[in-house]
Amino acid sequence: MNYTLDFTPVIDGLPSLLLGCLGTLLLAICGMLLAIVIGIGGVALRDSRHKPLRWLVISFVELIRNTPFLVQIFFLYFALPLAGIRLDPTPTAIIALGINGGAYAIEIIRGGVQSISKGQMEAGLALGLHKAQVFRLIILKPALRAIYPSLTSQFVLLTLSTSIASAISAYELTSVSQRIESESFRSFEVYFTVTVFYLVISWLMMRLFAFFSARYFTYPVK
């Protein structure tokens, strides 16, 4: 079988693909921010004195980590309207990404918090700091330094997971590529190009995370 490569549809659709990349980055960044908020809040509740709150966080983490992301995003998009909550595809995708990433962030951040010695916490309390101040001023940054590689790797995976948002027609790179492929029937050319775009996005994110690591999370060298 002879197959002639033809990247003309890809070249013609390049502006749309670049806009799709921006859509992917928008979903990823917003999802990451929400995941961080959920992660930090979940860790605080996970160590709460109130047992129901601890069990609520544990149940949330186990539910999210043991169900497919596709099912989660379908649930938010199709099931919530039955309860009178209707969301557009893009907000739905951001919330789903934030919830999914937040469940993993809780366990990652919690591992970092537990790596901090109790002596530092007790010293903060002895200085008259409240528990919230001890967490923010003493525990959080060293914990983030310890978990930074794991957390950033999870965020790169979260960025790649934005492609699943195409299942609910959220505007991002994969949904744009599906439209171009359906119009041109040039599957190899379209998805080869999209693969390159995802590789570039992932590489740029890893370089950005490496910059922040060197800038904020490395110990000074004498």
Please, what is the CATH homologous superfamily of the domain at 28-171? MetI-like
Helix content: over 70%
Oligomer: single chain
The helix count comes to 9
* Overall 3D form: elongated
Low-confidence region ranges: none
Text of the CATH class of the domain at 28-171: Mainly Alpha
Total beta strand runs: 0
Q: Sheet bearing the most strands, described?
A: none
Q: Beta fraction of the residues?
A: under 5%
Q: Radius of gyration in whole Å, from Cα?
A: 21 Å
Question: Which structural class do you get from the secondary structure elements?
Answer: mainly alpha
What is the average per-residue confidence, as pLDDT, rounded to a whole number? 88
Query: Helix and strand succession?
Result: HHHHHHHHH
Distance between the termini: 65 Å
CATH architecture of the domain at 28-171: Orthogonal Bundle
CATH topology descriptor of the domain at 28-171: MetI-like fold
Present the secondary structure layout.
Elements: H1 8-12, H2 14-46, H3 51-65, H4 69-79, H5 89-114, H6 118-126, H7 131-161, H8 173-184, H9 187-216
Helix pairs in contact: 2-3, 2-5, 2-7, 2-8, 3-5, 4-5, 5-7, 6-7, 7-9, 8-9
Short characterization:
The chain has 222 residues and is mostly helical.
Q: How does this structure look, described?
A:
Part of the ABC transporter complex GltIJKL involved in glutamate and aspartate uptake. Probably responsible for the translocation of the substrate across the membrane. Pfam families: BPD_transp_1. The chain crosses the membrane at residues 17-43, 55-80, 92-113, 190-212. The complex is composed of two ATP-binding proteins (GltL), two transmembrane proteins (GltJ and GltK) and a solute-binding protein (GltI). It is found in: Cell inner membrane; Cell membrane. The chain has 222 residues and is mostly helical. It has a domain at 28-171: MetI-like fold, CATH 1.10.3720. The protein is built from nine helices and no strands. It has helices at 8-12, 14-46, 51-65, 69-79, 89-114, 118-126, 131-161, 173-184, 187-216. Helix 2 packs antiparallel against helix 8 (173-184) and helix 7 (131-161) runs antiparallel to helix 9 (187-216). It is elongated and about 75 Å long. The chain starts with 7 loop residues before the first helix and ends in a 6-residue tail after the last helix. The model has no long low-confidence stretch (mean pLDDT 88).
